[in-house]
Amino acid sequence: MTDANSRSIVSNQPGLHEKLDEIVLKHLSAEFKKPIAEHTQAAFDQVNEKVQAFAGPIILDSCCGVGESTANLAKRHPDALVIGIDKSSHRLDKHDIEYKQTDAGQYILVQADLNDFWRLAVAANWQPSHHYLLYPNPWPKAKHLQRRWHGAAIFPFIVKLGGRLELRSNWDIYVKEFARSLELAGHECDVELYESDIAITPFERKYWASGQQSHRLVINL
Question: 212, exposed or middle or buried, with CB in 10 Å at 0-12, 13-18, 19+?
């Protein structure tokens, strides 16, 4: 069974990155001025029309991959509009047709760069009730700290979006670093093991089948 062969995270980092605080504090105090890409602006504008016309809660499923989690979250939150965002058209194109017609819940999948999409959502005053970051790429090499969401210049906008943020990873250091970054932004939370009988993403299924644990944080921002 190939699902049981998921490789464990290998990192040259034994704990929190030594420059984590310095980099996060720099991003929290700086202005992110990178221009918005045209394709993300166009994608956002389309979704924003639906968001503004929708009367119920808005839920974000960032780094949604093939969109399986987005469909499952829509079933869990039938009164909400769930928006799954991923930069890869290759992943989104794998979205199974069965997920496009759900008996409960509504959702949209959008291809966009989250570095731009999150900033546009903040500027448009979106107020998601929930924001899920399920198994983002952990970038485990120490030199890649600033490719992790909490080490990136976009991090303050994740905080500004608010809502009930839930992050999961199979690498505990990633979640602990994210928690420390949130603490630096004035929001303390705990990191815990996450277990469930039902996997809602392909990664979750793969990790659990190979004996890896999930770590998560949940915080109301």
Answer: middle
- How far apart CA 68 and CA 30 sit, in angstroms, is 35
Question: Among 38, 39, 81, 37, which Cα is nearest to 61's?
Answer: 81
This model's pTM is above 0.85: yes
Distance of alpha carbon 109 from alpha carbon 74, whole angstroms: 12
Q: Tell me how far apart the alpha carbons of residues 142 and 131 are, in angstroms, rounded to a whole number.
A: 26
* DSSP-derived pairing of the beta strands 214-220 and 191-194: antiparallel
Do 156 and 28 form a contact (C-beta atoms < 8 A)? yes
* Helix/strand/coil for 58: strand
Cα separation, 67 vs 109, in Å, equals 7
d(CA 184, CA 189): 11
Pick from 12-21, 67-76, 95-104, 196-205: least confident = 95-104
Centre a 10 Å sphere on the Cβ of residue 28 and count the other Cβ atoms it contains: 15
Residue 86 contacts residue 159 (beta carbons within 8 Å) = no
User: CA 219, 122, 62, 82 torsion: positive or negative?
Assistant: positive
Tokens, residue 12: 């040259």
Q: Structure tokens of 165?
A: 């943020």
Give residue-wise pLDDT tens across range 1-35: 334 566 777 788 878 999 999 999 999 999 998 99
